[in-house]
Amino acid sequence: MKIALVDDEQTCLDEMKQLCSDFGQSIGYSVETVPFSSGKSFLDAFDKSGFDLVFMDIYMEGIDGISAALKMRNQDNRCLLIFLTSSTEFMPDAFSCHAFEYITKPFSKQRIFHVLSDAIKILPQEHRYISLAADRKTVRIFLNEIISAVTDAHYLNITLASGEKLRCRITMPEFIKKTDHDARFIPINKGIAVNAEHILEFKNNCCILENGIKFPVRIRDSIKIEQMARDYHFEKIRGRQSSFTNRQHRRENEI
User: What share of the chain is helix, strand, coil (3-state, %, to 5)?
Assistant: First the structure.
């Protein structure tokens, strides 16, 4: 997760950098922070930086946080925006910028950790990766890029969303273990696992993926397999709703 820290107070930048680093280490999640001392310097770098999350102060000299956020939204509606400020008076304006959260200063370590935990529930598909040996080199593969994995003797043929195919000397159980038994990878037949994010439909005892590839589904377990796919998407939606509800409760407590 790549995080931009935008604040004209160096002490706040230093504190947030340390808290984000501590959070990443506490859960084994890769976190990179980039500090900016003004809204202008942030906007100058934003387009090419690919941030996933932005902590934005509101009271800053020059371009204030709300104005900077509105300009940012003209370029990107994807990244999560979290305001840090000493007052709640700008909360309505903040959420017009599609803010993910609004934190008042001074804040606690627990408060920041809670917000980052909520963010992880929204961003994990993009930021979890595994390292695999393919073509005599080690490559990092983001889990959301993997469409399917198919056993071929002592190898695993992995298809990516880009269309690229990797042949890795690894067994299916070893692959599943590397993903930390990620729920999106569903075993639909012997030696075949597909990413639930890329399933288009189940039809005629086949699993049809978004790229048009069809795999046969183990007939005796077809109902269970389809239910696993539905359960994955249900839990994903419920996790986001729970995250939203928790944020709403914290906002109400702050007002």
Answer: 45, 30, 25
